[in-house]
Design brief:
Length: 221
């Protein structure tokens, strides 16, 4: 008869399910935005191909606005909406890891709530048996930059992930003046989700043994 722990980690299931919710939500929203952008692009191309003016003119007959401008503006808005969405999900994913570490810590010691920074959270995660992925520090710096976009936050991300830092600001001069300087790509968001996923337990990850228990689960007899 088997003894020891069940091959199912409820903490891991909760952790993984929350990440799946974030991933599914982000992809659904981004797919909808891409569809809207594609529809506006098709309408813009059709309008230009028609050669028909649809807009307003002033008293001298000069064009004030045209339907093409409305489509162009909508496409630009959608692109910025998608970027803001990706930024929000980067922060949400990292926050999920932070609050999960706190929950794991409180399970061991209910009054243990003093995790004030990334380093303390990492130390606690290692202590409870769920060491984070080596790249989580980069995700932490990225989330902090998105929240604050201060000089110190930029320096921290540039030091932790120089290549990522460059891709985030390489198109800044070409973006609209009203747009955020921080640009998050689909690939970057996918990377964040994967790093956060690897920084916690899975549903089939054996939980850490309780105090005084052997280091590994005993075999079935």
């Amino acid at each position: 008869m088997a003894s020891g722990w069940l091959p199912l980690n409820l903490q891991g299931l909760v952790y993984e399910c929350a990440i799946d919710v974030l991933v599914t939500s982000a992809r659904a929203a981004l797919d909808a935005m891409r569809a809207s952008s594609a529809a506006n692009t098709a309408a813009l191309e059709a309008h230009r191909a028609s050669g028909v003016f649809e807009g307003e003119r002033d008293e001298h007959g000069m064009a004030i606005c045209d339907r093409a401008e409305l489509h162009e503006q909508e496409i630009a808005y959608i692109a910025e909406m998608a970027n803001e969405l990706r930024k929000a999900f980067v922060v949400a994913a990292y926050h999920h890891w932070e609050v999960s570490v706190l929950a794991w810590a409180r399970r061991e010691t209910p009054h243990d709530a003093n995790l004030r920074n990334h380093a303390q959270s990492v130390a606690k995660a290692i202590e409870v048996g769920y060491p984070p992925d080596a790249e989580l520090r980069q995700v932490s710096c990225l989330a902090n930059l998105i929240k604050h976009d201060s000089d110190s936050a930029r320096r921290a991300l540039k030091k932790a992930a120089p290549k990522l830092y460059e891709t985030m600001f390489e198109n800044v001069t070409a973006r609209p003046r009203w747009a955020s300087a921080v640009e998050i790509s689909d690939a970057t968001l996918d990377w964040v989700f994967e790093v956060v996923r690897k920084s916690g337990p899975g549903g089939h990850t054996l939980p850490p043994p309780p105090p005084g228990a052997p280091a590994s689960a005993p075999s079935a007899t």
